[in-house]
Every structure is written in structure tokens, then in C-alpha cells.
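Researcher: Structure prediction, please.
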Amino acid sequence: MESTALIPLQYALDTFFLLVCGALVMWMAAGFAMLESGLVRAKNTTEILTKNIVLYALAGVMYLLVGYHLMYSGNAGGVLPSFGFLIGDEHAVELVTAGGEGAPYYAKRADFFFQLVFAATCMSIVSGAVAERMRLWAFLAFAVVMCGVIYPVEGYWTWGGGFLKEAGFKDFAGSGIVHLAGATAALTGVILLGARKGKYGPKGQINAFPGANLPLATLGTLILWFGWFGFNGGSQLKVSSIEDASAVAQVFVNTNLAAAGGLLAALIVARILFGKADLTMILNGALAGLVAITAEPLAPTAMQALLIGGVGGVLVVFAILWLEKLGLDDPVGAISVHGVSGIWGLLAVCLTNSDASLGAQLMGIVCIFGWVFVASLAVWSVIKLVIGLRVSEEAEYEGVDIAECGMEAYPEFTKR
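Model: Predicted structure follows.
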């Protein structure tokens, strides 16, 4: 049994660890902003930057008001969370357990902050998929509901102790809870929006719309890669014991190797398919590897993590091409990266974690996808009826920067 004298030190260390990891995840907002602004056309840059920074603020407000309570205040094994508001008494020293009985604690507000940035990450996934033709205010209205209700409900099912946790569903850091959920919400938006004008020719040919700034897209990917160490490492929730410190180190190594595996696999597949080193596929390959390992970054060996990421990198290239052929226009490949690779990551848990079952993982995938798809489709449909989802054809041609924000990101260089 641990000495009671160590508890304050462990509390301080675990709280600090969680806050630092949360700050790393918050920095992923910059990664999404840079990645997406680099992969869209110059005339749509200001608007996508606006979406990314405003959604983070909205996520903070909505997760404070209702989201955190919905996600972590329900009954064990339940389906419907308990409705309530805010975090609790702001003057009280409230604690959250970091493990089983007798385990050290960390500050409740550290837990809130760490969970908040995950909610914002989930919504950031949607931004790139609906880029270049969605109304800014329609997107922001959806962000309010996504961060306040849709995401917390399915998060409660596992991380909040709901029925998926009781069923044995495992998702260490959110391949399904965060990434599949974000991709599913993005998918419903893309379905209702339709493709960008000119994306598909009269004979069904697929026209490429090159991104305006690949250096920015590359920077965004590296920022996301960096932030992912907080995303996965912080999900261990504590670092104050030898076992936990060792686990965090293993998670960091596996996270890094999965990204490397995904990147190299996408590079090789792109070279085989296109005869070139396609940078956009390379970037998405790295992100696919990161998404895939997120469901279980602790149990695999380093070589297994490399292979799990590599499979994600292969899948994402084919998924992007397949979705394009289906007429689903996703400018940044978000649905493929976070959805397809998220599903693969959840299934791959069964390969490395002896406590995981395929049935429970499939159940989790179906429940998360089903809930987010139906709820998102309903919310998008209401928004479409009330204010509309898509900008006018003229605004789309001129660029949503001018139509939605009244300014351009590159006024000296923008060409239409």
C-alpha cells in the first residue's frame, strides 16, 4: 500500500501531466487549421481558418454548459446520460479517480480541460470535409449541437461508464469515440451538401482541385503528429507510478511508429498507383496511422504498432479514391482518414489486446456510427430548412472567403 505522504505529490504530478497533455491536444487545433487551409483553394482559406478557431471556442462553451455533465454523470451501464449543467462548485477542490480503488487522484478541472479538447478535435474533423461550399453559420450551428450533445452522448457509452463499457468495448484514446464520430458527422454533411461545382465532369470524370498551400498542409500534419503524443499519452491519465510512466513511454513510441508506418505505406501505394510520390496521400497516410493506433496504443509491440499504422496508410489511399468515385466530395480526405482508419484501429485492438472481443468492437462501431449518423443527419436537415447549408453558386465561384468573411487570405495572389 502506498504511503499517504506520497498522495499530494502524485496528485500534483498527475494533474500537471494531464494539463500538459491537454495543452498538446489543444495545439492540434492549429494543426487542423493549417492542414485544411493548405488543402483547399486559396479563395476559401479565410473561411476555413475562421471555422477552425471559432469551433474551438464553441466547443469550450458547450462542453462546459452541458457536454461534460452528459458524458460523465450517467449511470453505469446506461444508454441515456443524466442531463445537467456545468462542472460543479468552482471553489471546491473536486477530485477524479485515476484508476481503481485506492488509486491516486487528479483535479476535476484538469479532467474537464483534457476531455474538452477531445470534443473540439472531434468537431475539427468535420470542417475539412464540408469545405468550400458550406455556409459558415450553418457549420457553427452544427458545432453547437455536436459538441454539446451528439459527441458527449456516445462518449458516455464508453468513457463515461455506459453500456458499451459494460459490453467490453475498448477504445483507449478515441479511434471510434472521437475520430469515427467526427468522420460520420462529416459524412452526413457531405451527403446533404453534394459535391463542389466542377468536381465531376459531364461524363463522370473526376477533376482534381489542388490545394493552395502544401507547405501549410505539411506543417499542419506535423503539428497534429506532435499533438497526438498528448492525445494518446495523456489518455493513460496518470504518470506518477513506475507502471504508468512506463506505459506512457510505450504509448509515445507506438504512436510515433504508427504514424511512420502509415506515411511510408501511403508513399509506396501512391508510387505504385500514380507513379509519383503524392504528398497529399503521404500526409493523409501519416494521419491514418495515428488514427489507427489511437484505439490501443499501449498493448502492441513497437513492430505491431508500425504494422497497424501501415495498414491504415494503405487503406486511406484506396478509401479516398473510392469515396471520390462514389461522388462523396471530401476536399481533405477527412472521412477516409478518421472514419475508415478509425474502424480499422478499433478492429485491430483484437489483434494485440487479449481482453478485447470482436463482437464488442463491432457493437461499438455500429452504435457510434448509427447514433452519430442519425443525429447528425437530423441536425443538418433542420439547419438546411432554417438557414440553408450551401452558399450560392456565385459565392462558391468567387470563393467563400468574400461571401462569408468579407476578406481574402491571399489578396495579392488569389486567382479565380
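Model: The mean pLDDT is 92.
Researcher: Thanks, that helps.
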